[in-house]
């Protein structure tokens, strides 16, 4: 099996560069390999003899651009190079790289972008510290306005490598080539949309060197959790595969629980029961077949049901109601020490009182699955959690605070564990933005935990499988479709 793909922050990447240099590879060799990878990619994108315009910045990102310019000219391309800043002020490896460029150097903002078959954006990479101004800003605006394809070196200039946020104006690339490992900005929104397809070039920094930086962010994909996916044994019976309990809302709010329940069953929970308020039993009964049904009158009712220890995983929140009753039911669930997924109303019921939720959560392996709105409500009054500009950091801090695995949803769903591990999901489709889609996700995660999967793996696998199911369907997707798309995704993973 492939290794999980480690994502490095700009600081970790600098550490890995430095460690590689300290171990005996000169920095200029790394830069030459990086520049060669850029040139190869540019050549792939441009017919031989075409016109390539390289915009170089004052740091090492610009150095990569100088190397690429030289190699492309040697290959017969017509290359123009422009610099932001003064040639004499280049230092270190980029000064060495510039010595190899014999052609003219113009001011970057005056480059003939409109005439380019390809523009290479080597202005700024991981060293960007603030929004672009002056000549750099004008160069980026002109590049973007030219309508010509742009290949960004490492990352689109103007994008923050850690957060994926544009720090002002930023390059809109047709493709990006990065080195050794992807950075958070390649996966997080909106950065991902600025990058185009991202290629990772090997420049001789080993996987061991990358891991030694202590990096703890991964792209969410099967190598991260495939080993943990449950496979029933020959002699398994249904109780070996867990029993998921999903709490239903009142008579007019029952669909969400059924969506979650069906997903839990499809992902392999041996049994699934909907716990329904007495007044909603009729409507739930009319719609359930393989999923079972129990009457459950509030917290006391839940307490009574949970005396049966075979219920080992609980899903609570979808359409449950935003009120004290829901808070009391969460407390009962947590005290029963079962695996727990809390979504929607179970989170919003703790609006502004996250401390109360944190107190109860200490007892059980829990996954919280907020979308951005629920996250903001739950942690209102906690600027330390809400204010970091990186979505990964926000999810991590929420996980650390609550002691739960946090799935902060969206096109770039981040799954964070209290110990600092984080995974970023990127295989979804905007067609998942449909009512009830999140209910299905929490059912999938609850169903995996029922089968004994750890919270972080269950949440990461659940988010990936949910997104894959949605993407496999595409236009016209509604939440009812999702559970029945799971077998196909599972077959691809398990056989
Ligand atoms: N040995 C290494 O460290 C390697 C680095 N590589 C490249 O080096 C890049 C990182 O290089 P650097 O750390 O030099 O950083 P950058 O080249 O991304 O930019 C840093 C330079 O830009 C200036 N700057 C930052 N923000 C600015 C702004 N808003 N306006 C104007 N100037 C600004 C800084 O003062 C500094 O001079 C990577 O993205 C990658 O492309 C590759 O060559 C591979 C090897
Ligand atoms: N633009 C998008 N691209 C990919 N996935 C998305 C997008 N928008 C939403 N999703 C996913 O769809 C699901 C929506 O969940 P949620 O907002 O809770 O919906 P609901 O409350 O209607 O069930 C989440 O898993 C989220 O990650
Ligand atoms: K760049």
UniProtKB/TrEMBL annotation:
Obligatory cofactor(s): K(+); Mg(2+)
Residue ranges occupied by any YjeF C-terminal domain in the UniProt entry: 221-493
Positions that bind K(+): 61, 121, 157
Residues involved in (6S)-NADPHX binding: 60-64, 125-131, 154, 256, 371, 439
UniProt xrefs under InterPro entries: CARKD (IPR000631), Nnr (IPR030677), Ribokinase-like (IPR029056), YjeF_N_dom (IPR004443), YjeF_N_dom_sf (IPR036652)
Family label: Belongs to the NnrD/CARKD family. Belongs to the NnrE/AIBP family.
Self-association state and partner proteins as the record states: Homotetramer.
Protein name per its UniProtKB record: Bifunctional NAD(P)H-hydrate repair enzyme
Provenance organism: Microvirga terricola
Lineage start: Bacteria, Pseudomonadati, Pseudomonadota, Alphaproteobacteria, Hyphomicrobiales
Gene: nnrD
């Amino acid at each position: 099996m492939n290794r999980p793909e480690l994502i490095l922050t700009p600081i970790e990447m600098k550490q890995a560069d430095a460690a590689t240099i300290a171990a005996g590879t000169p920095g200029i060799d790394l830069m030459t390999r990086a520049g060669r990878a850029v040139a190869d990619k540019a050549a792939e994108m441009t017919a031989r003899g075409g016109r390539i315009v390289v915009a170089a910045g004052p740091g090492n990102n610009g150095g990569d651009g100088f190397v690429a310019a030289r190699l492309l000219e040697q290959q017969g391309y017509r290359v123009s190079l422009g610099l932001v800043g003064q040639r004499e002020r280049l230092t270190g490896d980029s000064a060495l790289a510039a010595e190899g460029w014999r052609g003219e150097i113009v001011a970057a903002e005056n480059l003939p972008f409109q005439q380019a078959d390809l523009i290479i954006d080597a202005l700024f990479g991981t060293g960007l510290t603030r929004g672009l101004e002056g000549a750099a800003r004008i160069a980026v605006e002109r590049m973007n306005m030219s309508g010509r394809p742009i290949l960004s070196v490492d990352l689109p200039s103007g994008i923050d490598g850690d957060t994926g946020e544009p720090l002002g104006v930023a390059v809109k690339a047709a493709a990006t080539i990065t080195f050794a490992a992807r950075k958070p900005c390649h996966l997080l929104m909106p950065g991902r949309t600025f990058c185009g397809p991202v290629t990772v070039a090997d420049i001789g920094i080993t996987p061991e060197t990358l891991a030694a930086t202590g990096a703890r962010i991964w792209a969410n994909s099967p190598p991260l959790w495939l080993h943990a996916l449950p496979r029933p044994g020959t002699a398994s019976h249904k109780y070996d595969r867990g029993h998921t309990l999903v709490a239903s809302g009142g008579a007019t709010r029952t669909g969400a629980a059924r969506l979650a329940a069906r997903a839990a069953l499809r992902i392999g929970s041996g049994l699934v029961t909907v716990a329904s308020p007495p007044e909603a039993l009729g409507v739930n009964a009319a719609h359930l077949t393989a999923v079972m049904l129990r009457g459950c009158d509030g917290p006391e009712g839940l307490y009574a049901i949970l005396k049966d220890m075979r219920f080992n995983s609980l899903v609570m929140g979808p359409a449950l109601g935003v009120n004290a009753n829901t808070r009391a039911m969460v407390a009962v669930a947590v005290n029963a020490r079962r695996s727990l997924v809390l979504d929607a109303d179970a989170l919003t019921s703790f609006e502004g009182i996250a401390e109360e939720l944190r107190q109860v959560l200490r007892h059980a392996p829990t996954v919280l699955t907020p979308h951005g709105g629920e996250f903001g409500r739950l942690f209102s009054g906690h600027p330390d959690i809400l204010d970091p500009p990186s979505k990964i950091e926000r999810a991590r801090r929420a996980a650390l605070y609550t002691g739960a695995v946090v799935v902060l949803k969206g096109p770039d769903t981040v799954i964070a564990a209290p110990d600092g591990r984080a995974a970023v999901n990127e295989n979804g489709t905007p067609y998942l933005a449909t009512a009830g889609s999140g209910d299905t996700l929490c059912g999938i995660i609850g169903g995996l935990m029922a089968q004994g999967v750890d919270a972080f793996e269950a949440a990461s696998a659940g988010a990936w499988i949910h997104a894959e199911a949605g993407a496999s369907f595409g236009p016209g997707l509604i939440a009812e479709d999702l559970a029945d798309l799971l077998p196909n995704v599972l077959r691809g993973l398990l056989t």
